Amino acid sequence: MSHGSHETSASILKQPKAVWAVAFACVIAFMGIGLVDPILPAIAESLQATPTETEMLFTSYLLITGLAMLGTSWLSSRIGAKKTLLIGLGLIVIFAAAAGLSQNVESVIGFRAGWGLGNALFISTALATIVGAASGGTGSAIILYEAALGLGIAIGPLLGGLLGHLSWRGPFFGTAALMAIGFIAIVAFLRPEQDAEKPVPTKLSAPLRALRQPALAVLAAAALFYNIGFFVLLAYSPFPLGFDALGLGFTFFGWGLALAVTSVFVAPLLTARMPRTRVLWIALPLLAVDLVAAGLVIANPTALVVCIVIGGLVLGVLNTVLTECVMEATDLQRSVASSAYSAVRFLGGAVAPPAAAELAHLIAPDAPYYAAAGSVAVALVIVVLGHRALRRVDRVEAEPALTEAEAITAGDAG
To answer: How many CA atoms lie within 13 A of 174 on its CB side?
Structure first.
């Protein structure tokens, strides 16, 4: 990514301790997304839960993350980034530990919801904090932030698999311990004067009002259906694969790595060469085809793993490009547009996992993949039909590094 070749790797690494503290916490926060994936079958077995009940671990987390996103810009614009970060981290520590101590699946589902609230508060303010506290220019801070994010997405399933191999409770306690270290580091190293500039207070209703804008409405609707495909691939696949926690951990480590690489490196290359909507027109059908292929090869674990990793490559591009479109679609404050879009998108993610498990139970194990492919096709139709509203996102301009980083964050945050 061209964030300025004059910035050497030395300047990226010469950062105040505050930046390293927030970057470390970023890695852990993004690990939370894929962390439970490898332990879903183990939780179902240990707590005598059905696959549908187990999939609610994603639903409660994503539903609350999405709804909370509507209020995060309102809160952080009033109390400042440091307090918002610490409240978010504190909630993750408490609820991750509580999930690990749970005796039934309902409790884990409830505590995952609290975890989602903490994650929404943390993710929405981490980038602004790193940029505010960094030395060596915005560019080097953003590269560091994107590296932390990619690392978290890839390591989450791997750590979940390694700790989940010992016990399904392991990943929850591991997250709580690591986040507690992050919390202490931010308290110790992030001084008030390094806090990101206090933005203009935003109205609580601003994100909902933002959805009246045609361009944002088209993108949010497309993302709702696209995210159904995303989360069927991520959350339903552990069941037909039939691997143990370690096998699933390595599979979704490959998925996370693929997603991180394409979102950070490939998406910017594509949008530099063609209009953003054209990238969407190419990538959405590819994802639909990949999901159909997953349904066709469901009985062959090796082939299904290949489909999952290829899916990760396409998802990385789609996440970043869709969110870049959101950043450029309106004149609204970026945090407001991003909150509105993320809230709608996460609702798609919240519905998909339990719906997939029910489809598999009622029809056939491959049915969720075909339904997900259909949902991604709906997203494509929305983007194609809404092309007039999206004209503005195709104006080719040099993408500011900060916009790109915000796009990658909002894209990969779910």
So the answer is: 22
Q: Which of 335, 41, 368, 39 is nearest to 171 (CA)?
A: 39
118 CB-near residues (< 8 Å, 6+ apart): 87, 88, 89, 90, 91, 92, 94, 95
Closest alpha carbon to 46 in 127, 100, 117: 100
Q: Which of 132, 251, 137, 184 is nearest to 24 (CA)?
A: 184
Going by pLDDT thresholds of 50, 70 and 90, the confidence category of residue 135 is: low
Instruction: Give the C-alpha separation, 306 to 49, whole Å.
Output: 28
Confidence of residue 6 (pLDDT cuts 50, 70, 90): very low
Distance between CA 104 and CA 223 in Å, rounded?
Answer: 33
CB contact at 8 A, 183 and 313: no
- Is residue 192 exposed (0-12), middle (13-18) or buried (19+ Cβ within 10 Å)? exposed
Per-residue pLDDT at 1: 41
CA distance 278 to 270: 10
pLDDT cut 70: percent of the chain above it? 87
Res 377 pLDDT > 70: yes
pLDDT at residue number 383: 92
Alpha-carbon 196 to chain mean position: 23
Q: Are 288 and 233 in contact (CB under 8 A)?
A: no
pLDDT digit string, tens, across residues 308-344: 999 999 998 998 888 788 877 877 777 778 778 888 8
| Structural domains of the chain ordered from first start | 9-412 (1.20.1250.20)
Ordered DSSP codes for 75-110: HHHHH-HHHHHHHHHHHHHHHHHHHHH-SSHHHHHH
Q: How far is CA 273 from CA 190, 212, 278, 386, in A?
A: 39, 31, 10, 22
Q: Could you tell me if 286 and 293 are in contact, meaning their C-beta atoms sit under 8 angstroms apart?
A: no
Task: State how far Cα 246 lies from the chain centre.
Answer: 22
